[in-house]
């Protein structure tokens, strides 16, 4: 089961850097990320890192609102149409996302689609019906 | 020139005699209420002891706290069957402040309101649009009765819906308006968006503004935008509502109707009267109210009496602008807000901490109340939609409590100063001034 680290961030100068400094100090490597902001002056930073538990703990200890959030990661081909192929399957399975982002594993060959869903267990059930299985942690966080 | 020449231009010594006579009557009437009966018996106070108006200083003050503690009928000086209306403050935190009126009170208030409007130059030929909430809030019905007493064609438009307000103005040829100053900036923007110029496309000539602090520059901007004269007004629900003090057409301070209210300016710390012309807290006694007289009521508003006499011929004292409060109440968009009310709302929402910061700021010409709250760390799970729902929920809860919509900002934990000691809860970035004379 793979996790991303989600951090509540005010949209203020220097606040993003406050997060990356904690990660740097703890030797944590970022694999991928998204930053969502709202019109209300705050947003959420989602990080895919090599050591999610350690990152989450370090961020919380530094005083930030941070949480581990289960994600689903699927492999896809790193070529034109690769994302469309996997999205078509997910759509057929009936999976809807809150957020999604990607990561290239090997240039021109393999990539990852990471999706954040409202109901993790339901999504897992939906994809298993079409014989689609999320990747293991090693694949998601590893090199 | 005057609505009631005999009262408005009464010589000061005669006004003083009238006040003494009415003060005695008021004390006699007040003793009919459970609150004053107990208080005055205990302190051996009777109307006969009052030999001159200044003797009022021997009477105890009445506070908002007293009103709340003796809610709802502790201040009622008449049998309930004689009461015909109540007005009440908003909110669900603690007891509201409620004021009762009998037929005489409503009539007397309507007359003061008509006198105030006349003093600002409103005439029975005017078409008067009251852009103000009706209901428990005093600004709606208070103005309504005054406008009718004066004889204008009244349009009880209510608050909000700018397009409809503009349509009413155009359909019926509105010449006079009552609204809070911060709304008028917004209204002007709607005029512009519609490709209209209020100076050319309406018959507007006169505004009555009030119920929220504003600067002289703001007033002048409103006058320029709409091509009107804008007159400042003052009132508070405990003293009926609007119609307490109004500017005359000379715009040189607000005449406070001293035949209806006895005023004192005190030092809020020592509770002693301040020297003439100096700023202090306004303390008021009703002189013409039967259902619910209030004696030495501490308004918490900081102002002063402008020295000298007004060229308009009215002998009643002139109040300066309200420059602040001696408690933590603030006014935004015409709504009175106590930080305790915000705190009360937040305490009932387990997802957020009890620390908060209120910032009052003028954004695009409109006063806004920004409420910053911290989301609890252990509740946060990275779901943006859940946070957004929480933010909206808090916004609605606060709106229901204080009747004005805040801008709620969720902030990182630890970014708000903790409530230890006398923490700053309200930062007012708006700028107000007093009348320069």
TrEMBL record, chain A:
InterPro entries (UniProt xref): ACT-like_dom_sf, ACT_dom, ACT_dom_pair
Cleavable signal peptide: none
Span of domain ACT: 4-85
Gene3D superfamilies reported for this sequence: VC0802-like (3.30.2130.10)
Protein name: ACT domain-containing protein
Annotated organism of origin: Sunxiuqinia dokdonensis
